[in-house]
């Protein structure tokens, strides 16, 4: 297929997302006020507790089997790499722009957590439905697309509410403690760039002067002691992240639904009772699927409504916004091509071109809307998060089309 044909195939799904997002933005305007703050709050709860879990259970149970889990084992690792690489790039942005401490968690969260849920559930099947799709038969392609997108959404939900939530909460709590200390003292305490001081609670945040000196010393006569001290700091960093993981936040309804959906799909006896067309309890599965169909349009409408906050002024530095936009729309997709090609070279990504396309696409999506939900929980940085999301999604409307076109040309 020519570049223009691939571009049209990639453009149509993005236009669908833009149109529905625009409707949500329009409905949230003060003149219309059909999706005002109160309405968004109720709709968010319905999506969070009912629609999204129903969608995950029905899609995973209907498309994921034991064989497909074995085949798709690299996808959870690939998603984890997007979080790790995005976090590293976010940390670089923080260092270069000297981002205020209370906004650092937002920057890292936006760089690490991508919208791997409703966007992929819209984009990937829509690509298969195009008459000139490069991925073969539309029926088989759509079935595989739903399986890939559903697994991506399930894994991303776990990573987002464990890792990204821990990072955002760590900086939010540390910022609140710093403000309370600063109000009681005339001079603020000197900040530190160490991982332990950033992420650890107060009981773990201090490192002895001796350890600090050992790490900063060059590897001369005390090389062994320096290595031991450095390993100790790494261990404390890992311990700090684990201490910030709230299991109540990890096991949100979407995570529980993902686990249930995987069990229903993988365990053959349950599948025969619930999922198969001749199953005695098939009506339960179809009812869950019917409810889940409302999740994607509702989530996209709410996403557009939430972006309205980004039109207002905030204290977010322009260079920080440019940095996050560059990470999500330029650097991560480029690195995603390298990771996917390397995985394919070593036999980890399989031979399915659609699967490789999804793996690359996971690096090119804009930030997860759940990062904005986290800032609402902590009542900190909501406006700044909204403006980052606004600009990243605005740029993604163009970049996602171009990257999708390039990805299809590389795998087709």
From TrEMBL:
It holds the Pfam family Mem_trans. This is Protein PIN-LIKES 3-like. The keyword Transmembrane helix applies. InterPro entries: Mem_transp_PIN-like, PILS1/3/4/5/7. It is found in: Endoplasmic reticulum membrane. GO terms for biological process: auxin-activated signaling pathway; endoplasmic reticulum to cytosol auxin transport. Involved in cellular auxin homeostasis by regulating auxin metabolism. Regulates intracellular auxin accumulation at the endoplasmic reticulum and thus auxin availability for nuclear auxin signaling. It is a multi-pass membrane protein. Belongs to the auxin efflux carrier (TC 2.A.69.2) family. It comes from Herrania umbratica. PANTHER family: AUXIN EFFLUX CARRIER FAMILY PROTEIN ISOFORM 2 (PTHR31651:SF39), PTHR31651. GO terms for cellular component: endoplasmic reticulum membrane. The gene is LOC110425623. It comes from the Eukaryota. The chain crosses the membrane at residues 6-27, 47-66, 72-94, 106-127, 147-173, 250-270, 282-304, 316-337, 357-378, 390-411. Keywords: Auxin signaling pathway, Endoplasmic reticulum, Membrane, Transmembrane, Transmembrane helix, Transport.
